[in-house]
Amino acid sequence: MIDPVALAQALVRIDSRNPPGDEQPCVDLLAPLLRDAGFEIEIAGFGPERVNLIARRGTGKARVFTGHLDVVPLGAAPWTVDPFGGEIIDGKLFGRGATDMKAGVAAMIAAAIATPDATVTLILTGGEETGSEGAQALAASGLPDEAEFLVVGEPTDNRLLAGHKGALWLKGCCHGVTAHGSTPHLGTNAVYAAARAVGALERFGFGHPAHPIMGNPSLNVGTMSGGLNINSVPDRAEFTIDIRTVPGQHHDAVTRDVANAVGAETELATLVDLPSVWSDPQGQTMMALVHAHGLVLGAASAPASANYFTDASVLTPALGGVPTVICGPGDPAMAHKTDEFCEIAAIHEAVAIYRAMLALP
Question: Does the annotation count 238 as an active-site position?
């Protein structure tokens, strides 16, 4: 039996901030461990020091678990603990990635090793935090395994979620004509054009019904920039748009609606395009997963979803639309925060949940 807490500590102590990613040292730690436990190992690169790890054991339809090995940057605020120290203080594992999501990765590995009779595939990806690049590379090369279900170990406080919103990130660019700041009538101000576009987006309506669980889609303008100096008319301005979609929305149609809203002054480019994921909670496999989850927590879960995206946006369709749940240790509110931590008890609880799912008949 692998100690999931010790494994999570070892992973947290590896600096896999994305950018640049550098997931290779995580794979170097995990591949021998899984190989020794009887897994067939495949390591698939998608850039310098950027790797995915696939570990398979058993025959027939696999029970697939996935987690990502990259973590976000530390941020500007100072940490009170070593962000890569993996310290345990008052029953909590501290460090960047403790919650998002190296504790989840450690829990699924420990559960898989402790359930030797299960047919299981572990898909451990790089590049999730910046748009699921690792998962997309795997999907492009083909995932031949037949899957029974997919479990995504993102932090949910070990709640069982049946899906999440999609993510459509766009960049808007407006062009103008530069001139001296004292003669603005000789130029065309790109910042004004961008401001008009952003103002239109503040009033943007999707015209799409709310999902019964996920609620409404959302739009946020996250950044805006333009100009080179104060005494010049800016000839370029940019802004970025974060759209979160619900099932039934098609991203190409949403992009067209946004383009109509911002007008011809704005060029749009797609930065991230990841669809929503939703599995019917009344499906036979989903009900079995809910039952296994309830055996550990003592009560069945009501249908719920997440606003954030996961690699399921890529892996679920790549695996043929397999039933998918999101469930992992850690408070999702702690993800990406300074002094990130995960409760030790939650890691052990996640192992028990995953083992119950692997033990389903």
Answer: no
